[in-house]
Design a protein that fits this description.
Pfam families: Ank_2, Ank_4
Protein name: Serine/threonine-protein kinase ripk4
Number of strands: 0
Distance between the termini: 73 Å
CATH superfamily of the domain at 159-228: Ankyrin repeat-containing domain
Shape: elongated
Oligomer: single chain
CATH class of the domain at 159-228: Mainly Alpha
GO molecular function, one term: kinase activity
Radius of gyration: 25 Å
CATH topology of the domain at 159-228: Serine Threonine Protein Phosphatase 5, Tetratricopeptide repeat
Keywords: ANK repeat, Kinase, Repeat, Transferase
ANK repeats: 27-59, 60-92, 93-125, 126-158, 191-217
Helix content: 40-55%
Length: 275
Amino acid sequence: MPLQESTELKEFKIKDENLYVNCRDMKGSTPMHKAASNGHYEVIELLLDAGASTKLKNNNGTTPLHCAAAQGHFEVAKLLLRFGAPIDAKANNGWTALHDAACDGHTKVVELLLNNGASVDFSDINGSTPLHRAVTNGHGSVVNLLLNAGASTKTKDNNQWCPLQKAAACGHEDVVLLLMKTCRYDLNAYDGRTPLYYANRFHHYRVGDSLLKAGASDINEEFERTQRQKYVGFDTIDEVEFLLEDRLTSLQIAQTIDFNDTSQYFVNIPLCVVQ
């Protein structure tokens, strides 16, 4: 059975001097990559004893540490770091191990990497930092760790999205609230594409309400358009119930719109004032 395929490797010791422990498969992965991906701690110990490298990259540019971080294998990642795994090595897509761990919400691995000096603000080929990745997937505990480590809330990706805009567009209210503690001053500084604009554009009205209560301004042309559409595009009963529960906010929003054009936009406006 090939070394990379063996699930019984931990049952024997590597003594054959002719055995090449850094051999690669068609994707460029070594036995170390495979063991790290699957969290096989004892196998990795054997490979390390036999001289296997922790630094080699496969065809995608990923190292064994990337593999362990992506799967949340804390003890394996810790072992690899102890044996010299490059903590900030970048894969072909620009991801570091911290990107992998942050994207999938592996809090313990994120903390491990940060405590070992991982760079918190490296950007991938799309301009996304680990914070962008954690925010997009709603991993609040990871976001908190990154913020405490000094992650920038102002960095924009290649599409000019900052983390707060991402959180609002994705509807992650807890993450939005967490970010606002750090970047409250940014709420209206987006040239019309504010977090509030994106929250309403993607129908995340509870997030929009939180932003309004935090001081976000709703007076701009782009947002005004999405507010009109808000009343004709309900997707779920929950959205309607939320507006019914918060009649005052809905009426305040309505006051910012030109009522000479109500025939086109306010088909369902009675929902906002029903007792």
